Amino acid sequence: MTCERVRDQLALWATGDLGPAERRRVAAHLAACPACREAADATRAAVAAVRASASPTPVAVGARARMRSASASALVAARHRRRRRRAVQWSAGLAAAVLVGVAVGYLVDAVRSPSPDAEAEVRWRVAGVEAERTSPAENVVVRGDRLYAVRRGTGGGSVVAIDTAAGEAVWETPLARPSHLAVAGPRVYCVAAGDGGPALVALRIADGRPAWRYGTGSREVALRPSPPVPLEDRRVAWTAGSRVHVVDADTGRPAWTRALAGGPLSAVAEGGGDLLVAGCEAVCGLDPLSGEVRWRTAYRRRLAPTLPPLLAVGGTRVFVAGADGGVAGRLVCVDGDSGRLVWTRCVPRPRHLLATADGVYLRCEDVQALDEASGEPVWTCRADGCGPMTYTDGLLRFVDSGRDGRLVAVDRRTGRTAWEMAGLRSCGAFVAAGDTGYVRTWDGVVHAIALGRR
């Protein structure tokens, strides 16, 4: 589909009024086109704002009634005009988008915070945190008594350190389009825009002052640079495009750089004494000190290079998930000791991958658990959204952004719900630290939630 055709369909796509075949074509185009994906996010955000209010307040009821009535007329008219000519179809799509905007205006005062039960559990909130729904970057990290988050603004953005007890900022450092946070030792690591491409920046954990900046010096376009990964020997590994970079954590000086065929590359991971990284053709085990390739295992079929693959390590198994064209995907299992390909399984397009010593969990259209030895499904949990999953104490935690939203914890063996909290909608990870959990919602607010009995 062309960009023009997709933009014509976005209003109907966001409200669920496209047929299955047309919706699949739109989804395939959005997966490969950042500009249309941005337009789709804006349209979906408007619709989500309308649906976010579940309380039947007079304002909400009136707005919904107006939206339903006007939407029905607009959709019927749009479909009729679309049969006649494309030019009028574009106008119908624009009118539908304007209609959604008007409906959102009616609902500005009616959109709720989390439900009353969830409200009682919230210790504090901090607004203005980056909430780009299509980005896999995790922009909230908790270490010790501080939470580190990315803020974005028209002038660029910043990294902010927040006291987890009071919810107040300790320091804030401006950076150009920051993303992908990681924290280790005395440093906060962040990917930021730099001359000629993305750069890796280290900030001092005490006061946020820049310690060093490492630019790749490459003209290669990185679709999505990976998060930095602190290593055990006071070094930091990072991938951008088809290159792996390992730098000294204290000085930012490069230890080594390795180009690998079949990019873009996943984030790196440590396993079995190797530095692991996956591309669209193969997964490799590298020598952490030199960057030399110790082993390389090719997939049976190349993954689509639309986005970098996802990589996770569970025990001695290495798992790679990636796109297989359109809305399809594949999950690959490799033995980390021998480099042998164990199994390959077709899955829906993957959004997040998590592995433990005795299980592998994939977030696609739903959250599903698979047997690590065979790849056979174990259980499936219906959950809308794309946020990362987290695992602690035998519970898999994630946010289901369908309907009014809910934070869910399920038993990793059975997929049965252990507990849930209504009123939260997010594409970020839920991070538990002590007796508090932290989650960034769609409106850019970080919520500190008292776990208590949870």
Outline the biggest β-sheet: 4 strands, antiparallel
- Beta-strand content estimate: 35-45%
Mean model confidence by pLDDT: 79
Helical residue percent? 10-25%
* Secondary-structure class: alpha+beta
Beta strand count = 32
Any low-confidence stretches, pLDDT <50, length ≥5? 53-120
Cα end-to-end separation: 47 Å
Counting DSSP H or I runs of 4 or more residues, the number of helices is 6
> Reading side by side through the largest sheet, how are the strands ordered?
1-32-31-30
The rough form would be described as: globular
**Rg, please?**
23 Å
How would you explain this protein's 3D organization?
It is a single chain. The protein has 454 residues and is an alpha+beta fold. Among the domains are: 3-107, no CATH class; 134-234, Beta Barrel (Thrombin, subunit H). It is built from six helices and 32 strands. The longest helix is centred in the N-terminal third of the chain and has 25 residues, at 58-82. It is globular.
